[in-house]
Automatic annotation (TrEMBL), chain A:
Membrane topology recorded in Swiss-Prot or TrEMBL: Multi-pass membrane protein
Example GO biological process: amino acid transport
Sequence similarity: Belongs to the binding-protein-dependent transport system permease family. LivHM subfamily.
Major localisation: membrane
Alphabetized UniProt keyword annotations: Amino-acid transport, Cell membrane, Membrane, Transmembrane, Transmembrane helix, Transport
Pfam family, one: BPD_transp_2
Coiled-coil region: none
Transmembrane spans: 12-35, 42-61, 67-88, 152-169, 201-223, 235-260, 266-287
Protein's organism: Paenibacillus mucilaginosus 3016
Name of the protein this chain belongs to: Urea ABC transporter permease UrtB
One term of GO molecular function: transmembrane transporter activity
Subcellular location: Cell membrane
TrEMBL record, chain B:
Membrane-related topology note: Multi-pass membrane protein
Superkingdom of the source species: Bacteria
Organism: Paenibacillus mucilaginosus 3016
Subcellular location: Cell membrane
Keywords of this entry: Cell membrane, Membrane, Transmembrane, Transmembrane helix
The organism's taxonomic lineage, starting at the top: Bacteria, Bacillati, Bacillota, Bacilli, Bacillales
Transmembrane feature ranges: 40-59, 66-83, 103-128, 140-159, 189-209, 235-258, 278-300, 312-333
GO CC terms of this entry: plasma membrane
Pfam families the UniProt entry points to: BPD_transp_2 (PF02653)
Name under which the protein is recorded: Urea ABC transporter permease UrtC
GO molecular function, one term: branched-chain amino acid transmembrane transporter activity
Length: 301, 368
């Protein structure tokens, strides 16, 4: 029983990380149909921000204050990634709307530059981030089953982010105009929504989410310039499986991939698990080509 | 040969110049540079295939590294067996595999290996292409799925070390059909074989692009729904072009392994797969010949820059991706064609202007 619970917990834990990464993609991909290959590098930016804040706290502040650095890092990671995302949208992405394949190539170029930049600044080897003390240890459920606080924290963080995005998208004026642009750009523009501003904001929001994801990833292991590439394809698969345009689809996609991956990893091997999961996704798309949850639209592409 | 459009004429001239340059290269280049050029030209075969599916059909495949790799591995498996005296590759005995796995046995024959090097990529492309295109999975989604194919294949190849050589890949080849691969004369011969392959692929691609069969994919690229409404089945055309393109990637893999002497999962991963797209973008989409030019120029630049400043190349390549997609979406050949057209139009405009003036003068006499 506890083994099953542990498996389930591991699955949900993996799902939460995938979801955190895919959340930003769901916004940029769903809203603007931009394939942002540099999304992984925003994760990297968030991770390095955490590394830097940690260093600052270690150097400048008394040891007693160290425990709080992570809260600040989350904020800084979000803000810096969002700011760079906003800048990227203003300088590059907005010239590529309606050319999704070109956006893929251009952002891939951006990702190469950002990776090399990180390598130049921080060096090629991975760096480790020390987790604050209050995240060490775990919650003991039974003798064999301990749930690490770090993973629980990430799950809580994801729930917080999803709730925040949900509230923003469905219960604020800005979020509603974002939805309107998503559903019918032309009509939204006719009704007086500044689609340009919505796009920039959406892209910044998506990048900021990636920054938070990067911050969370520092809890799980060392970080390096190519940290983003490990997750980017998985994150895209989450979005493709979930279906573009609805938050709930992304959640379902992440849960499905996360739980299945850990289950197959336990029964077969890590290699085969990846192969099986991706094969299942392609098989699933035979049945529902547009993903789990789709937005109804009468537009003919 | 009919030369109706200016584009065809430009392409013909460019092809002839290229052919002359390629044939002269052995006299001008050192042995090392020549073998580099030979590899680039092997890549050019792949790039032309990629151009058929991306430039002409509008489907961006980020998985061509896999087709290239599958072709290369098929060839390499034969070479490896030929270089293993007791019939069992060395890495297998290291990993504790004692008997040749069943899927290695066909590769004992060179003919079968060459055939499979083209067939395996085509079959994989057919399965993936049919399953996705049939369901009308759209452009960006297909690109992501093709990337998933790369992940699957690379993980499999790295993970199954005993059967595939793992991260190290396959290397230490000796002979092919009794020819010593390290021999300079054999290398020169392989270079000429590669040129022949490039030439044949070029002819095939240009023929495809100008034939009726090749017009439908262009229509699919520009307005797939209209093609469907007219009564064509876009799926068949898309799958066909995708398979041709995968087969060409397989051939490129064969030529690459014969010249380079190694294939590893790193050469079929996500990064090389996307780099391949850059070659086509730089040369010029939907121009065929641009794929050759783009491949050779990009690879030459990469070699030069990474020899001198290894940490500088990623910046430059990143900038190339951005600049080419933003400012030169037509690539080198497309931009040249545009300039040529403009120049020609400028020449003809003077006569046109005179004509229109004459028309304007005659207008008042028309009844109002």
């Amino acid at each position: 029983m506890s083994l099953l619970l542990l498996q389930l917990f591991n699955g949900i834990s993996l799902s939460s990380i995938l979801l955190l990464i895919a959340l930003g993609l769901a916004i940029t991909f769903g809203l603007m149909n931009v394939i942002n290959m540099a999304h992984g590098e925003f994760i990297m930016i968030g991770a390095y921000m955490t590394y830097m804040i940690q260093g600052l706290f270690q150097k400048m502040l008394p040891a007693s204050a160290f425990g709080y650095y992570f809260a600040l890092s989350l904020l800084v990671a979000f803000l810096v990634a969002a700011a760079i995302g906003w800048l990227l949208e203003k300088t590059l992405i907005r010239f590529l709307y309606g050319r999704p394949l070109d956006s893929l190539l251009a952002t891939w170029g951006v990702s190469l530059v950002l990776q090399q930049l990180a390598r130049t600044i921080f060096g090629a080897p991975n760096v480790a981030v020390k987790a604050p003390e209050w995240l060490e240890g775990g919650l003991a459920i039974t003798a064999e089953l301990t749930l690490p606080y770090k993973r629980l924290f990430i799950i809580a963080l994801v729930i917080f982010c999803i709730t925040a995005i949900y509230l923003y998208l469905y219960h604020t004026r800005g979020g509603r105009s974002m939805q309107a642009v998503m559903q019918n750009r032309g009509m939204a523009a006719c009704l007086g929504i500044s689609t340009g501003r919505v796009d920039a904001l959406g892209f910044a929001l998506g990048s900021g989410m990636a920054g938070i994801a990067g911050c969370a990833l520092t809890l799980l292991g060392p970080i390096g310039p190519s940290i983003g590439t490990y997750y980017i394809v998985d994150a895209f698969m989450v979005v493709v499986l979930g279906g573009v345009g609805k938050l709930i689809g992304t959640v379902a996609g992440a849960l499905g991939i996360g739980v299945l991956s850990t289950a197959f990893e336990y029964t077969t091997s890590a290699t085969l698990a990846k192969v099986i999961v991706f094969t299942l996704i392609i098989a699933f798309l035979q049945w529902r080509p547009a993903g789990l949850v789709t937005m109804k639209s009468r537009a003919l592409d | 040969m009919m030369l109706q459009s200016s584009g065809t004429k430009t392409k013909l001239i460019l092809s002839l110049v290229l052919l002359a340059l390629m044939l002269l290269a052995p006299m001008l280049l050192s042995e090392f540079r020549l073998s580099l050029l030979g590899k680039f030209l092997a890549f050019a075969v792949l790039a032309m295939g990629l151009d058929l599916i991306w430039g002409y059909t509008g489907i961006l495949s980020l998985g061509h590294g896999v087709y290239f790799g599958l072709g290369a591995y098929c060839m390499a498996m034969h070479l490896k067996l030929a270089a293993s005296p007791d019939g069992l590759p060395d890495f297998m005995s290291w990993s504790g595999v004692e008997q040749l796995p069943w899927f290695w046995t066909p590769f004992q024959s060179a003919g079968a290996a060459l055939l499979l090097a083209v067939l395996v990529p085509v079959i994989v492309a057919f399965v993936l292409g049919y399953l996705t295109f049939r369901n009308r999975i759209r452009g960006t989604f297909f690109s992501i799925l093709s990337q998933a194919l790369v992940i699957i294949t690379v993980t499999l190849f790295v993970g199954q070390q005993g059967y595939t050589g793992g991260t190290n890949g396959l290397t230490n080849f000796d002979t092919f059909l009794g020819l010593k691969l390290g021999d300079p004369s054999v290398k020169l011969m392989l270079y000429y074989v590669t040129i022949a392959a490039v030439g044949l692929t070029l002819l095939l691609s240009l023929w495809l692009a100008s034939s009726r069969l090749g017009k439908i994919p262009v229509a699919v690229r520009d307005a797939e729904n209209r093609v469907r409404f007219i009564g064509y089945n876009p799926v068949a055309y898309k799958v066909f072009i995708y398979c041709v393109s995968a087969g060409l990637a397989g051939i490129a893999g064969i030529l690459f392994v014969l010249q380079e002497g190694i294939i590893s999962p790193a050469q079929m991963g996500i990064v090389p797969s996307i780099e391949m797209v850059l070659w086509v973008a730089i040369g010029g989409r939907a121009t065929v010949i641009g794929a050759i030019i783009g491949t050779v120029i990009t690879n030459a630049a990469k070699t030069t820059f990474s020899e001198a400043y290894p940490e500088f190349w990623p910046f430059l390549m990143g900038a190339l991706f951005v600049v080419v997609t933003l400012f030169f979406p037509k690539g080198i050949v497309g931009t040249l064609q545009e300039l040529a057209d403009k120049w020609r139009a400028g020449r003809t405009r003077s006569t046109q202007v005179l004509g229109s003036k004459a028309l304007a003068y005659s207008e008042p006499s028309k009844p109002q």
